[in-house]
Design brief:
The protein is built from 5 helices and 7 strands, in the order ααββααβββββα. The protein is of the alpha/beta class. β5 and β6 form a beta hairpin. The longest helix has 14 residues. The radius of gyration is 18 Å and the shape is globular. The two termini are 32 Å apart.
């Protein structure tokens, strides 16, 4: 798996605001291509994540997330600055189910996404008992596959304006009783800074993934 053209900085409205000038909600046209295969291995799941992001396919994306999916991003001190569960994630990415709110997939005409694996490991359930009732990180009865790597994204709108994300991220995957893999944790490392072109002007803004998804947080 492989992994900034001067442009006006795109300011994305808060997720709860509907932009009347935004593009129509994206409904991918497969053009006769085969549907994504069942995620019977962690590798297939990650391939399907690439496909869902690049095709801006909210239906496929929804199939990748576990019911108790949790996204978090921390600051440089290790404090969580942003977190959300599965339903908010689906709204942030694919828009509201009633179509009243646009999501990330609807706001951009192109979405480049690439994950480069740095380290793969197994988080043993026996080493992660629940510290308290409902502990989201406790999973004593199952082992989680952990994929940590560099994620690069480039999101552009109809005018070629957009954002670049270049960040270390960790995906924790669990296997369901049906033998399929799903994402149960998405953890972003902290990120700061912007990129510039050779004139010193901001080109495509570099943002943390949570900041792009939830501006003004």
């Amino acid at each position: 798996m492989g992994w900034k053209s001067a442009a006006v900085l795109l300011i994305i409205g808060a997720v709860g605001c509907v932009n009347p000038f935004a593009p129509k909600k994206n409904t991918p046209d497969d053009g006769g291509t085969q549907p994504a295969p069942p995620a019977t291995t962690p590798e297939i799941l990650m391939d399907n994540l690439h496909r869902a992001m690049r095709d801006r396919d909210k239906d496929l994306y929804e199939t990748l997330l576990a019911p108790n999916f949790w996204f978090t991003e921390s600051d440089c001190q290790g404090d969580v600055v942003y977190a959300n569960g599965r339903e908010e994630e689906l709204t942030l990415m694919g828009g509201s189910r009633d179509g009243a709110q646009l999501g990330i997939f609807d706001r951009f005409r192109s979405f480049d996404f690439d994950f480069q694996l740095i380290r793969r490991s197994v988080e043993l359930g026996t080493e992660h008992p629940a510290a308290f009732p409902g502990d989201p990180d406790g999973h004593p009865d199952e082992d989680w596959e952990v994929m940590r790597g560099r994620v690069q994204m480039l999101l552009l709108d109809e005018n070629g304006d957009g954002y670049r994300v270049d960040q270390i991220m960790t995906y924790k995957l669990r296997r369901t009783s049906a033998g399929l893999w799903e994402i149960i944790r998405w953890i972003d490392d902290p990120l700061s800074g912007t990129c510039t072109d050779n004139t010193g002007k901001i080109a495509v803004a570099t943002r943390g993934w949570s900041e792009l998804r939830h501006p003004g947080m």
